[in-house]
Structure formats: C-alpha cells, structure tokens
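Budget justification aside, the reviewers requested a transparent look at the raw inputs and outputs of the sequence design task funded under Objective 1. We therefore reproduce one unedited record. The lines immediately below are the structure tokens for a 192-residue chain.
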C-alpha cells in the first residue's frame, strides 16, 4: 500500500537516505509537509523541510547511549508530502488522509512531521487525535481566523481544542493579544 501511496503523495527531493527502514517496521516515520498558504510577515516556511540537509557531515554516534542515530534508529523518512498550495481546505484534507494512512500501516510508530507553517498542526492532530498537545512557540496561534480563513497558522490551536477536545499547553509564549489572552484564561489553558 505504501508504494501506491508514496508514488502519488510524496516527493523525495530531500530525505535522509540512512533512514530507509520499512514503514511497517519503523519505530519513527518522518515526513515533511512543506505547506505555506497564509504567511503573515515573510514567506519561507515551506522550506523548513530542508532542515534535513543539516545532517550532512554530522557525527551521529552517541557513546553514552551506544547508538548511531543515522544507522541504528528504525526510522523511515518518506520525503515530503505533496501538498496542494493555495487551497487550505484541500491541503488539510490531503495531509489528514496521508497521516491516517501512515498510522493504519503502522499503529505503533511515532509519526514525526516537519513543516511548513503551523497550519500543518491541525490536520496532523485531526488524524492522530492525541489527548494533549504541547506547543513550543512565542505565539498562541489561537485566533478564530486569519484574513477570513478558518484553518491557518494563526488559528490551529483554537480549533484542535474546540473540535477535538485536545488539552493544550503552551511553552515560551512571548507576546499576547487581549482576545487571545482572554480565551486562554476562560479555557484554563496553561502557559509555562
């Protein structure tokens, strides 16, 4: 099933070649989601998946753990999900479907995603349905919408709370808007 899914869904411009464990047996499944539909200040979030290039030349053996994270880890790097740009709803449907399919293929694996803008958090949570989510960011991303669009990088945390009942925890918040502050206080959302 993954071969059929992979050929239509993933592009492999950037992957870590050593992380080629079979999807069905992997402990961690890594996929990039280069989504950037609603930038606020400057574009570029779609290039976040290129962080994989930082592994080049990295010494990957940790003697205290006796593990080489590139060759010993049971990781499958699938490359980047092909995400339709310009249509947030279609992008969310695509991401949700791909993550659900990956989880069906390997229920025990941890799925790790690299963005893309924060909008990707909504479909990943929608697919996996965790009980709680910890956000490490300087912003709450809890607006009801952004420029008339409901699901964006500025609103994902509100909708995972309201639609899926996820318990939210925020770490590192550096600035607030009054409406957002009132929302988190009204909903007893902790900020650390």
């Amino acid at each position: 099933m993954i071969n059929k899914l992979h050929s239509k869904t993933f592009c492999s411009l950037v992957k870590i070649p050593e992380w080629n464990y079979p999807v069905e047996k992997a402990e961690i499944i890594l996929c990039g989601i280069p989504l950037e539909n609603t930038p606020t200040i400057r574009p570029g979030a779609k290039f976040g998946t290129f962080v994989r290039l930082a592994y080049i030349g990295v010494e990957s053996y940790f003697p205290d753990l006796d593990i080489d994270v590139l060759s010993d880890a049971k990781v499958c790097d699938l490359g980047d999900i092909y995400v339709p740009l310009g249509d947030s709803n279609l992008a969310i449907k695509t991401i949700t479907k791909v993550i659900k399919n990956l989880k069906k293929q390997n229920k025990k694996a941890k799925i790790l995603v690299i963005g893309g803008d924060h909008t990707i958090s909504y479909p990943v949570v929608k697919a996996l349905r965790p009980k709680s989510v910890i956000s490490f960011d300087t912003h709450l991303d809890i607006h009801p919408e952004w420029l008339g669009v409901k699901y964006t990088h500025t609103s994902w945390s509100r909708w995972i709370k309201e639609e899926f009942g996820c318990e939210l925890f925020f770490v590192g918040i550096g600035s607030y808007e009054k409406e957002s502050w009132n929302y988190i206080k009204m909903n007893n959302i902790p900020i650390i």
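The mean pLDDT is 88. Residues 1-129 form a domain with the Arginase; Chain A fold (CATH 3.40.800.10). Computational costs for records of this kind are itemized in the attached budget.
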